[in-house]
Amino acid sequence: MTVERQEAGRKTPQQSEIEMEEMRKRKETEEALKQEKTRMAWRCWGRRVLVTPDLQDSKGAIRVTFRLPGDKRTIRQFLSTATLTSLYTYVDAQLIPLNLAPEEDPVISPNGDRTGEAALEKCIIQSEDPNAWWGFKLVLAYPRREIQWEVGRQLSEVEVLRGGGQIMVEMVERQAIAGDDGYTSEDSE
Q1: CA 34, 85, 73 angle in degrees (round to 5)?
Q2: Structural domains of the chain sorted by starting position, each given as residue range(s) with its CATH number in brackets
Q3: How far apart are CA 177 and CA 183, in angstroms?
Q4: Per-residue pLDDT tens for 121-169?
């Protein structure tokens, strides 16, 4: 082996750092894709198992109008005994891409439980950031107030929803990848 080939085979510390950084970014991307796939599995399962048929003018029902991203609008009635989890799950199901047919939704939750809302709530609580689990906020249109998700809380206990209401769904940006300050420069474009 010639000296030139030996030197060409050696990596400079800068090259090693660049390769390590590329490998780290690849792993982060793979992890983000895995998390999104798992999240979509929960979303589809929720649509099949937790989203109940609309009540259609049932007495004592809470009527809610949702303004979804893309100016889509939907109206839904919930029992007053329904929980915030069912409200959030309904909105979550509205965010499933159209190419994922409801007939293909799983019957068993992604973690193998069959316990309905309890399985979902357990997963959310155990997640890295329960406040970011849903990926959106529910905000009362007027007066503007966020309706925060809570385990087991019934809609009748949420004062701003007692007479129904109009809710805007605001998407929340995912956390920036570690080491990414979110700043874009001309060099990064």
Answers
A1: 85
A2: 13-171 (3.10.20.90)
A3: 12
A4: 988 888 878 778 899 999 997 788 999 999 989 999 998 888 888 999 9
Residue type, 150: E
In the numeric block, the tokens 């700043």 are attached to: 183
Q: At what angle do helices 13-49 and 84-94 cross, to 10 degrees?
A: 110
- CA 35, CA 50: separation in Å to the nearest integer? 21
Q: How do the residues of the chain divide into helix, strand and coil, expressed in percent and rounded to 5?
A: 40, 15, 40
The three state secondary structure string of 99-140 is: CCCHHHCCCCCCCCCCCCHHHHHHHHHHCCCHHHCCCEEEEE
83/52 Cα distance (integer angstroms): 12
Residues 6+ apart with CB under 8 A from 94: 66, 68, 72, 74, 169
- Token representation of residue 138: 């529910």
Tens-place pLDDT, residues 7-66: 556 667 777 788 888 888 889 888 888 888 888 999 999 999 898 877 777 777 899 999
Hey, what are 142's tokens? 């007027």
* Helices within 10-162 (DSSP H only): 13-49, 84-94, 117-126
